[in-house]
Amino acid sequence: MSKLAIYYRVKPGDCYETPKWAVDCLLRREAFEGVILEPCCGQGAISKVLKDYGYGVISSDIRDSEQIDGEKGKDIFSINKVFNNIITNPPYSNINDVIKHFSRIYNKKMALLLRLSFLESMSRYEFFTSFPLKVVYVFCARVTMYPEGEERPKNSGSVAYAWFVWDKDYIGNPMIRWIPEKEK
Asked: Name one GO biological process term (predicted).
């Protein structure tokens, strides 16, 4: 894959490590059956927590650096195999295309850590109408994520995040739940 293609898929600075406590919060609220795909694994922040909970995980990342904790150089758009579940913190630079692709490669549940503002816009309204959510778990405390390799400042993040969960067996209106836990 060319460097330009990698730049398009994952722009520099679009790789943020998910804090363990944020993954714990999801797993205390949602159970998953079967194998979980983590297609944007980076250094394995989410994958390691999933494995600690006893889940079978297949991890990959488009980047091919030594620090990647999974299959290196795997473009998410080249994944066509269907998995039971997907859990990831996807790149935001082309999020609409990413989610549309993911919607075709899972058959049970998908949980994505996204900015709360992902709920906004007419195009997303149309998307959610045809691809309804089960639940949005909104973090009351800010989830602070840092670009890989950068020093961690003492202040918290300025962006509101939530776990967006789709469940192919769920019938009903989307729910909103709050996560009151704070970083530990």
From this structure: methylation
